[in-house]
């Protein structure tokens, strides 16, 4: 029996673990397939406060983990197969460990960026391939950039990246875009955006020093083309990691956990959500860490018995 189990070890989960451990609640933190979350796949992070010279993603996550361990957090590696929030104590089934019981649970499993699955894509993550314009746009000042996608996210990313790149080429496999009209109009009014529609991405082309371009198939001419670029941003959406919850937690139509505004409370008292798994808008390391702090404090109040309201009907 644990006071609290934290599922996930990105910035949100690790921050929650630090606060819970300092409150002498001795949380158990379950590390999944990617300990440290998405930041372990990034290189230098320049926008996390407190590091004026930047810090490498894996180093930041390792430091946060050590900080949680210092105060008494316990870490175990495993894949959460399922949870049972129907009765208390809550039950968390972890592959290789069996069923663990807890008085409270914090869900910080994040959201996974969708990828195309084309050659050169995964090999060059952090070497010119990115899924976050806000995180990595700064590194492509005065360089050629490609954005792949046709939805609102792609329009927003392309428009944002024009602040840095010498040009931004937007690639979509269809002639039509899924983005809302207002987002399309904003992008089309931007003179730095080059439109490359009706083209199917085939391969991220790279050399020793990183990305050199994107090979595409022109569906109109049936010819392959090479779009020269120093950076390729994949903007086809994210998938929240919530399937293991089995519809026990209220989510939106995509799968992001719904929390009571201004808190990390889910529809089940004693179960909290933080980080990208409940964040459809910001998806930044610092905002995730902030909600991790909130989740720990909400959880502590719940365990103390001072959180007496059931907010399930308001979600």
From TrEMBL:
Per the similarity annotation, which family is this? Belongs to the class-II pyridine nucleotide-disulfide oxidoreductase family.
Cofactor stoichiometry and binding remark: Binds 1 FAD per subunit.
Any GO BP annotation: removal of superoxide radicals
UniProt key word Disulfide bond: yes
Cited InterPro entries: FAD/NAD-bd_sf (IPR036188), FAD/NAD-binding_dom (IPR023753), Ferredoxin-NADP_redctase_2 (IPR050097), Pyr_nucl-diS_OxRdtase_2_AS (IPR008255), Thioredox_Rdtase (IPR005982)
Q: Pfam families given for it?
A: Pyr_redox_2
* Cofactor(s) it depends on: FAD
Q: Name one GO cellular component term.
A: cytoplasm
* One GO MF term: thioredoxin-disulfide reductase (NADPH) activity
> What keywords are assigned to this protein?
Disulfide bond, FAD, Flavoprotein, NADP, Oxidoreductase, Redox-active center
Which range is the signal sequence, renumbered to this chain? none
Q: What is this protein called?
A: Thioredoxin reductase
Please give the organism: Paenibacillus pini JCM 16418
Q: Which residues form the FAD/NAD(P)-binding domain?
A: 2-292
Could you tell me which Gene3D superfamilies the record lists for this protein? FAD/NAD(P)-binding domain
**Oligomer status and interactors:** Homodimer.
Might you give the EC number(s) for this enzyme?
1.8.1.9
SUPFAM superfamilies given in the database record:
FAD/NAD(P)-binding domain
- Catalytic activity, per the record? [thioredoxin]-dithiol + NADP(+) = [thioredoxin]-disulfide + NADPH + H(+)
